[in-house]
Amino acid sequence: MRLPLSAAFFTLYVAVQISVPAVQILREQNSFRWGMFADSGERQEIFAEYADGSHESLAQIRARTGHGKVLRSQVSLGQRMPAYLCSQAPKPVSIVVRQAGTNAEERYRCP
Amino acid sequence: MSLDDFFHAETSARPIGVARAAIGIAALIRAALQYEILRALLSGDVIRAKQFNWFPDLRFDLLWPFMAIWMLASVSFALGFRSRVSGSVLFLCLAYQLAWDENLQANNFYLMTLIVFLLTVADSGCSFSLDRRLFRRGPQVVVRWSTLLPRLQISIVYFYSALLKLNPSFLAGRSITKSTRMPELLHHTWLPSGVAAATVGVEFFLAVALWLPALRRGAFALGFLLHLGIFLGMDGQHTVAMFTFGVTMCAPYLLFLEDSPASRLVIWDDSCALCRRWVAFFQGFDWLKIHSYEGSSNSNVLREAKISPQDADVELKLWWEGRTLGGFDAVREILCLLPISFLWAPLLAVPPVPAIGRRLYQLVAERRKCTVRTAAPREL
Q1: Is residue B374 part of a domain?
Q2: What are the average pLDDT values for consecutive 10-residue runs of chain B, which has 380 residues?
Q3: What ipTM is given for this predicted complex?
Q4: Which of B4, B123, B169 to mutate to test the interface with A (most CBs of A within 10 A)?
Q5: Is B242 in the A-facing interface, judged by CB distances under 8 Å?
Q6: Are residues B251 and B322 part of one domain?
Q7: Residue of B7, B155, B193 to mutate, testing the A interface (most A Cβ within 10 Å of its Cβ)
Q8: Å between A58 CA and nearest CA of chain B
Q9: CB proximity B160 to A under 8 Å
């Protein structure tokens, strides 16, 4: 009984540790894949657009409010930021997430 | 080797015991850094990036009790006191944070969590522990497959880390200029991209070379230099994290030192006060107990090792598997198997260090005073 358990644990552990980073890389997700300092962390530019037509970058919002930091550059800002920025005052009408170095952008309407 | 042999083979528990102590200390140091991180997260300055909405938050007023449990578990794990319990508690403290918020999923922290888990599973409290002193009897061995997992883990980390660095941004040196103390003057030279390429090369090399006996010592030294470079070179905000990361990566290197306890014989001139001090130093740090120490006045030992009394009095001798080394080379070989020096001692084989070392050894040997007439040093 002891041997199959040991063998199962060993095999499962190694399989998980090899496959999890591989899956994360394929999905372009940033956690648990050992990408330590592998990029400069500037994958996205994020802007808040206001009703009067003006817009403000994430860096400017951080400087103004003193909030909105993340503790790791790998935190998926494109996924996390829109909801956060929509809750800030003054309330933006939409949030634009632009992939750094490209023109590809996604726009989130604030509820 | 059959599957049955593979899963039943045993190995000395000393390396994994020493690795456990190192990881416990690293977890304790890490707690100081993580306290600041958790405080920032709980104070609302940081955008919350919860993994699962249903997952319970740590309340601010419970931060101190949480840290106290973590630190106590770290100390207990380092000392090897109730190692399985303290390891499990420490693992739960670390894993809770990883599951809680994306902000806490630093790779070095994740690695520490996995290594604590593996050392707990591997019964690392079997040796070099209070558990051994207080409760445990029997041979100090563990099943070998359990010591393979931490080793495989660090190879996997090196491999993926190098693989993910194969991108234009990293290879152009952007991470190097952004995250290290490299003077701005050098940012527009070849150096950032050179350092980036070397980092990738070294990481790929380590992923493989640690498993190859012929390259292993070189891998130890390169890994040591890599992590020392990361620790000293990264900018201030990463210093503590990179120190604990270095310890977490290098502690499992110990598991590659699979020489059996007392498999190497050190023969020393037991009429010499200086030799006595050196041997006491070696014994004090020979936590893996790979060496046994015998004075040159023991004629039986000299006969077994085929060393003449005159030779044994000229210089320290190391004898194992029919091989004999003397003087500086013996000292270097011993240092290559001590937990405090095995990472850097291979550098003593890089020319011109051996030539300088042999000359220095000879100078010291000629000037030493042989005034002590005692038996072998006290067993430490």
Answers
A1: no
A2: 90 97 98 93 86 89 97 98 98 96 93 98 96 92 97 98 94 92 94 96 98 98 97 89 97 96 94 90 96 93 89 92 95 97 98 96 83 46
A3: 0.90
A4: B169
A5: no
A6: no
A7: B7
A8: 12
A9: yes
For residue B351 the two structure tokens come to: 């020319």
Amino acid B309 reads P
A80 to B161: CB separation less than 8 angstroms, yes or no = no
Cβ B120 vs Cβ B87: under 8 Å: yes
Q: Is the pTM of this model over 0.90?
A: yes
Which of helix, strand or coil describes residue B132?
helix
User: Considering the domain boundaries, does residue B346 fall inside one?
Assistant: yes
Cβ within 8 Å of residue A8, ≥6 positions away = none
Whether B214 and B353 map to the same domain: the answer is no
Do both B240 and B275 map to the same domain? no
B45 contacts chain A (CB < 8 A): yes
Whether A70 and B103 lie within 8 Å, measured CB to CB = yes
Q: Phi, psi at residue B19, to the nearest 5°?
A: -60, -40
pLDDT for B193:
96
Q: Are residue B291 and residue B335 in the same domain, yes or no?
A: yes
- Residue with the two structure tokens 């100090």: B140
